[in-house]
Fold each of these.
Amino acid sequence: MPLRAVVMNARDNVATALDSLKKGEDIELVISGEKELVKLKADIPFGHKFSLAEIEPNSPVIKYGEVIGVSTAPISAGDYVHVHNIASARARGDLQGGKE
Amino acid sequence: MSFLGYPRPKGYVGTRNYIGIISVVGCANDVSWWIAEKVKDAAVFLHSHGCCQTQPDLDTVNLTLTSLGWNPNLAAVLLVSLGCESSSVEIIADGIAKSGKPVEKVVLQKMGGKTNVVNEGTRIARAMAETAAKLKREEFPDSELRLGVKCGASDTTSGLLSNPATGVACDTLINNGGSCVFGETTEIIGAEHILEHRGATPEVGRKILEIVARMENRAIAMGVDMRGGQPSKGNIAGGLSTIEEKSLGAIVKAGTKPVKAVIEYGEKPEGKGLFLVDSPGREPEFLTALAAAGAQVIVFSTGLGAPQGFPFIPVIKITGNPNTYENLSEHLDIFVELGEQGVIQAGKALYREILEVASGKKTKAEAIGYGRFPNIFTIGPVV
């Protein structure tokens, strides 16, 4: 069976869905050649992300082995990860008061 | 490897053989369009600039239009002016003349209005087209190609599949002695530390950090979170959560070679290798930056399905999103299968397609004539 989700780098704490995934499904992932199962706690649309681990609020969210943002709420393994629980750390004029 | 192109003065090679009808100011767009409609093999470039702007922006307009005139896909250029604009038809004409190709101008306010300027412009452009039609395609090595790369209407498949495949084609061309241009500075935010180390010299690395900070500061100055504009609503719907995630997936389309130089918007780099042009990634402005930089073919990687081409550059569309490829087949040229092998195979297929398109094969965007509304990127106010 083809992979239904992909982990881009062994450092990542999120995976990307390659199919429309449903809450309660056990999704098989390959991380550094090792197989791992994650049970989904929400539906994950095609191309969207879910967590591989517990992520505390204000912690880095990692994909491609790089920081893609900061968590804004507690996230646990199998949770849907998107704009509702991660924020960008860049180009934040709202936080920087419009000052360069 | 080789392709069949049109020889131009000073050793350049075109992949198309158009007569460029270039509007010098937004107010001359209508007459430019009417002239182009009457001339076979005309390609018209319209935009909304050239007047009531501050000098740095007017300089950008002059530079961009001059560089577009140099693009090897144009055999000759007719500049269309209103007369009272602040952009300079003389500066642009003199600049294009240095390319060695024919360039002429028509000016509405000096020639008695629309009817006369369309008649005279049509006469000039038709004569140019008659001469250009005598040129035949000749074989040239692929090292004569300059490829522009872009991603747009991205989703998460862009970073996983179509951008890496585009990167494979970029690396192949540079290995073969050619050149590539990328840009979309906004979509380097969050990935600049990676590109910094790809600078051919420490100074290029510093320049990359500088242009990214400059672009980010423009967004910060608006006093809001950039998210929603970048990544766009569509990017977010496609699974991209932050600009950092979008950027990390975006930079791979430029392959893995050292960045030889960073150029300003509208500039045309000299030499071979990988170049970075400072520009936002929005289609109308960025495709113009690639054309100005001398790209004769553009590869456009998309997830959600971006249809845009460019008036005189073939634009090849590549996607890794199977739903998009199925639903928008009239706009998309190449599909990337899932998996690492898929990326390498698609990169090779893309490279073959680049050579075929360079030799005259029409892209989907060319076949349906999508891409008539480019623009120029300026930073100051309309005053």
Note: Residues 156-175 of chain B form the longest helix (20 residues).
Amino acid sequence: MTIVEKYRAESIQDLIISKKILEEINSWLNLWREGTPTKKALILYGPPGTGKTTTALVLAKEAGVPIIEMNASDTRNSDWMKRIALMASLYGDITYSDAGETKFNKIILVDEADNIFEGKSKDKGGDSGGLTELSRIVSRTNNPIILTMNDFYEFRRKPAAREIINNSLVVEFRQFKRKNDLDYRNFRNRLQERLSFIAKNEGLVFRPEITDRLLERNRDDIRAILNDAISMMSYRDDANSSAEAGIRDAVSGIYDVIHSTFKGRNYEMILSELMEKDFTTEDYLMWLDSNLPSETKDPSDMVSAYEILALADIFVGRVIKKQHYAFKGYAEEIAAGVFTAIKNVNDKYVKYEFPSYIMKMSRMRDGREGRRYLVSKLARLTHSGSSRVSSNLWFFQHLSKNRINLQEMQERLNLSEKELSILRKS
Amino acid sequence: MLRLTISVKNLKEIADLLNTVVTEAKFKIESGLISVKVVDPAHVAMVCLDIPKEAFVEYQIDGDEELALDVERMKSVIRLANSNDQVTLSKEKEKLKFEINNISKSIALLDNNTVVTPRVPVITSENYVIVSKTEFERGLRAAEDVSDSIRLILSSDEFRAKSSSDSEESEMVLTKDMLKDIKCASTIKSSYPLEYLLKLVKSLTTSDEIKLSFKDDYPLNIEFTFGQAKGSQPGVIKGSFLLAPRMEQ
């Protein structure tokens, strides 16, 4: 057992969690005590290590009910969803003896729900059908369900996610917004308390002055803070060697990197953050692209900043064409310099937006697929290439305005609803 | 030294019963009997078995101990045997050795800490019905494909098993004279998962009577006996199958 597991919070008092989040979660669970709420599931999203799973475990413990877990290491295709989550959601809990005292018998935890990878076909394996099944379960459940995830935006784009979200209370697991606000100070105090407790229990020495360094490095990732803190504590006798020794490389998330690209104005710093990034160069460019307008006050700044970004984009294009992926770094280094074009610095807070391009693409995918199938069917029928049919699609659309023609096409091509709707559109 | 010899029939029935709800089980071995309790991952179905010494041909143990096993692995070993064979099990370090006639095969034991024995709930009910397994199985089969759950209704003079969906319906009615025994003061009803009930009756091959007791929206307790002792005395192993009720909105 690692130290982090050993000191996993066991009661609400031990949780290092902001009051606001705790209140939101508690009032959701209270609704379950009175009956079946409309928001049957709870989505907790936030960076790793901030205590989402721990909170779910503590909630079950405090409510005195068993918890049924479906973890990322389990198979979560539709069969397993039915066998575990569906059964658990409709029936009582055989190990729970006080049935009737509360309206629910157990809590179902679907951990890392953004990692359920729903494949397209049944035989491909993976978690195919898992999310679709989960959405059905969430709308019918008689027991509370908690879903945790890191990337809510990624999850939102998955098939069937919409219905899950509509039936869920969504809570962001961020313990504080910025340094030195009230939540931050509370977080810092609670953390310090917990760390001294652990140190005392483990016979180590904890120096409070390292707290700020830990927070700087790991933000609200409690798991990382604990790991770092413990390795720093073991160097207890030597004041100088302690601080840097145990710090791991922190992964930089896209929000942080975008923030320092625009606001940091320190090129070396941006590059070093890019070294640890957990996203692709293309993502980086797209994020810069969609957020650049809100970070520039002066139109001429915007123009020159876009010049730089455009250059980086050309490089990415070439890299992909030639498949010299190792050269992507150059595009990144060019893009990292966008701030040099911004003379008139925007010092206001900007809420970075998710690139709309990516969202549009995923929304369009369904439509594009229907079109592709329609075109390939027409191509087979007319003995022509699909690109020719695609550019002459207007002709078939015009043809289908005649009811008899449409009927014949429908019979010969066995068109699906989606394909029909594309054909009818003109 | 741990050395147990048992008929393939008995062992197979034990393994099949456990396998209706789990793939791993922990056996608690004591001087007079071996007991095992398992619960499915959704906490809906539980199986508890008490296998007395008499169910074995040979029962040699050193003292109390626990053995955690992969039930599916065990079933695949049993498949090597004929139905009239005997199996001898012996523990060798972290392995369990199966000897069937001229074949021997060892499977790895699981870490006792990873297989959790569930807490058995305290459930009591005055109402019960004793039915023939074949009769009950017919009622369950009628409900198959109609719905995922079956509603059991017990009154002072009849036992009904009903299942319905938007478009289909099935019902089995067993009147007092068709039942072995019935005791129920007022009408009670509760729904249970059909799939588990079907799995249970399918794996119970050597028992013919089962006792069902429940209350309104309350866990169902099915008690049964099965297996054969050395002197071919039937029903030597005692078991119970617990099912959580469907929660009504």
Note: Residues 235-249 of chain A have pLDDT under 50 and may be disordered.
Amino acid sequence: MTRFAHTILVAAIAVLAGANLALLVWARGDASGARRPASAWQRWQALPASEQLACAQRYADLARREDAGAVLRRARDFARLPAVRQERLREVQGVFQTTLDRQNAAQRREILLAPPRARAYLLYQALAEQDPALVAQLRARYAAER
Amino acid sequence: MEHLDVELAHRLLRGQLDPQARADWQRHVHDCPRCRDLLAGEREWMGLVALGQGAAPAAAPPAPRLAARIQQAVPGGPARRTKAWRLSGELAVLAALSAILVWQVAGARVADAARQSPPGIPPELQGHVVANLEALAALAHDPWLADQYEDVQMLERLIVEQEPQAP
């Protein structure tokens, strides 16, 4: 084999190695980009088409809200909580809704129109007045879970 | 004085010249680069010929580097075997790199195909949906998160921390 042919062979190896490396770096950058996490893509691809459409519709509906970003952030925060805490918050939400539904129209309006912190406090007051046993039971259980 | 020719150089190297002529040519070779080169080349050549015939060099040993190259160039010699191994190695590396490249390109194509948006979902919307898939899944399961999450968290804190009011 001539020296020229040997040089061509070594150059081909170098070019192929470079191409492989470039492709690898490109693929990794694309897959690990913050905008498109690979695991999210995998989960997305695993969804049936009907579920994908439902998700897209849900996002399109949500995007019309002014606070869409905040809603998504809250939902993401909740999704990352431990399962036990998620369950507890679901239970508290049930209590929240039941207590709200138990109020008359004027009280409900007052609660719903109050600023966020005051809203929760008004609701807590109503709950403590109307169902103190439930409050005591929940407090005891949540304290024990801590 | 004329320059050396091949025949004269051979005779000089074999010691076949008379002492006077030998002394004259040695002086000339000392001063003449052309004849010096010729003499050196012929000395190497004679050494190689002697080596090929299995005999010890007659006049002078061949240049060691050249002799080694000639010896290694013998068919089936160590140099040939080393070259063959090196060539095999290089071809194997080339083949492996080609295979990896093909595999990577094929993988990238499959990934691109998989990322094509399904019918009814524009590609841009798909990107947003995928980026927020975790949050959207949570909202699908717990729609109250959109409007009541902070209230519920606050209520939970009040239940745990607020002292019960005296009746």
Note: The first helix of chain B runs from residue 6 to 14.
